Amino acid sequence: MSDSREPDAQPPYSTRKISVQCEINGRAMTLEAYPMARLLDVLRELPGLTGTKEGCGEGECGACAIELDGALVNSCLVPALQADGGKIRTIEGVAGSDLLQNDAVRLHAVQQAFLTHGGAQCGICTPGMILAAVNLLERNPQPSDAQIREGLAGNLCRCTGYTKIFESVVAALRASATPTPHAEPRR
Predict the structure, then answer these.
(1) Closest Cα partner for 141 from 149, 129, 133?
(2) Which fold has domain 109-176?
(3) What is the pLDDT of residue 2?
């Protein structure tokens, strides 16, 4: 039997591209994409944000995690259409935008802790792990050990026993914890 479709024909639900207007890492962008294209692929191909990785392609591993309107999502499960009008943060948008003297970008405390404490291994899960940790610490600046474990639970790593990853998040938590200078005395 031969396939009667043309070799390059797209399924009926994705025959024409749409303009997806969104903010990615603080920059307004318009992406021309098929409505049901995976946001993972659109981010990697159009603006070239290849820090977001594909692990399983089924929303089970967290390697493709991004923030969409402040919520941590697996971009392999999000259609491009859903990002229209949204604010997206990828791993490339986590580091500070200010440049240091040697033109290097200031790393976020979580990124620095992953480097310092060996939280990064092969690199496939690292962007998703870092985004999950950053998202957690922004929502809860003083999480308990159990809350850190729960915050990272959607991310799988095949290289480690998670000890170095957990230690990295704890180190970032300690590094970013600053005492309040004008705290009211306890009564």
Answers:
(1) 133
(2) DNA polymerase; domain 1 (1.10.150)
(3) 47
Taking the C-alpha atoms of 15, 19, 21 and 24 in order, what is their torsion angle to the nearest 10 degrees? 70
Q: From residue 69, how far is each of 65, 88, 117, 162, 181 by CA, in Å?
A: 13, 6, 30, 28, 32
What tokens were used for 81? Answer: 């259409």
Cα–Cα distance between 24 and 129 in angstroms, integer? Answer: 19
> Which residues of the chain does CATH 3.10.20.30 include?
15-92
Two tokens, residue 63: 């390697």
* Count of CB atoms situated within 10 Å of the CB of 53: 21
CB 75 within 8 A of CB 43: yes
The pLDDT value recorded for residue 186 is: 34
pLDDT in tens, 59-107: 999 999 999 999 999 999 999 999 999 999 999 999 975 555 566 678 9
Helical (H) or strand (E) element with 32: strand 27-33
Which residues neighbour 122 within 8 Å (Cβ) at sequence distance 6 or greater?
Answer: 158, 159
